[in-house]
Amino acid sequence: MTKSEIEAKIAELKMDYIRVQGDIEKLESTGNGVTKAEEQLIRMEKELKELNDKLAALS
For residue 32, what are the domain limits? Predict the structure, then answer.
């Protein structure tokens, strides 16, 4: 992956992360379970860390 591809993927993941956080707030306010959404956030955090590490290695 090139630096710009990594940066684009990071930006995309950040937007998805914000969306999922909003979904969790809606689920909690309606009394629904949030376990799956929280697991998705954890996966996204790991992927963001990996991408940031790759980006740092390229710099």
Answer: 3-58
The number of angstroms, rounded, from the C-alpha of 53 to the middle of its chain's C-alpha atoms is 15
8 near 50, Cβ under 8 Å? no
How many domains does the chain contain in total?
Answer: 1
Q: What is the DSSP letter of 31?
A: T
pLDDT digit string, tens, across residues 5-50: 999 999 999 999 999 999 999 999 999 999 999 999 999 999 999 9
47 in Cβ contact with 11 (< 8 Å): no
- Rounded to two decimals, the pTM is 0.88
